Amino acid sequence: IEDSARVISRMTDIVMIRTFEQTKIERFAANSRVPVINGLTNEFHPCQILADIFTYIEHRGPIQGKTVAWIGDGNNMCNSYIHAAHQLGFHLKIACPYGFEPDPDLLAQYRHCATLVKTAEDAAAGAHLISTDVWTSMGFEAENEVRRAAFAKWCVSRPMMAAAKPEAIFMHCLPAHRGEEVEADVIDGPQSVVWDEAENRMHVQK
Q1: What Cα–Cα distance (Å) separates residue 113 from each residue in 46, 107, 110?
Q2: How far apart are CA 115 and CA 119, in angstroms?
Q3: Which of 47, 96, 155, 173 is catalytic?
């Protein structure tokens, strides 16, 4: 990794990397002569969260002071939402099945802006934005059956959306599994902005 960073950074103006462990991109960046963007790691997904925030602003205006609900796996998306809550001044309510919570050190560090709640309904109540992700992310396919059982009650439903603010919107980084992490009526319904969100990945990453 160190040698690759030294060579590649001599040939480019900027490097964007999608990889697995966060330590890999950090080792690359430490040996790069040019800026390195995290396109995705197991631990963080900042480019997707930037697209989500941009999409919220596009539809509803400033996100500062708003409430965002993350429902589902405490994965790289959730971890980057915690960072965003701190940077941009919104409150994040996180609802995950037991054993699938985000990094506890991260939660402790950012407890002023991120709260772990007990149920998906608790997270959805009063939210301006509800976001979720697949139950089984890339690299965790071996856990698929265990996760299907653990996440059975964590499907974003119409009643959850109804418990949110009337102007609340729904996001998903895609691809989605209708009937698992989100009901078809939600992702294909009037509160969903997932197609704008997907398009905005391109604009934000540019």
Answers
A1: 17, 9, 6
A2: 12
A3: 173
Report the C-alpha gap between 136 and 143 in whole angstroms.
Answer: 7
Confidence of residue 140 (pLDDT cuts 50, 70, 90): confident
Share of the chain above pLDDT 70, in %: 100
d(CA 117, CA 56): 23
Q: Is 152 exposed, middle or buried (0-12, 13-18, 19+ CB in 10 A)?
A: exposed
Query: Is pTM, for the whole model, over 0.90?
Result: yes
48 labelled catalytic? yes
Active-site entry in 78, 83, 96, 133: 133
Please give the share of the chain, as a percent, with pLDDT higher than 90. 94
